[in-house]
Amino acid sequence: MTQFKKPANPTHCPYCKGNGYFQLRLGGSETCTVCQGSGKK
Questions:
Q1: Tell me: the pLDDT tens digits for 1-41?
Q2: How far is CA 2 from CA 9, 20, 39, in A?
Q3: Are the C-beta atoms of 21 and 37 separated by less than 8 Å?
Q4: Is the Cα torsion angle 30, 32, 37, 39 positive or negative in sign?
Q5: What is the rounded CA–CA span in Å between residue 40 and residue 19?
Q6: Are the beta carbons of 29 and 23 closer than 8 angstroms?
Q7: Which backbone phi and psi does 4 adopt, to 5 degrees?
Q8: Exposure string (b/e) for 2-36, b if CB count within 10 Å is 16 or more?
Q9: What is the pLDDT of residue 8?
Q10: Which pLDDT score is estimated for 41?
């Protein structure tokens, strides 16, 4: 039987995984537009 782990902190933004930013493929980063860089929902 497979068990799935729940996220450690469900208050993290699901889009940037709580980081507050996205890593861009060409280099650098961009602030998450969903949480405005806070990393929280």
A1: 566 665 555 689 998 999 999 888 988 999 999 999 999 98
A2: 21, 31, 30
A3: yes
A4: negative
A5: 9
A6: yes
A7: -100, 135
A8: eeeeeeeeeebbeebebebeeeeeeeeeeebeebe
A9: 58
A10: 84
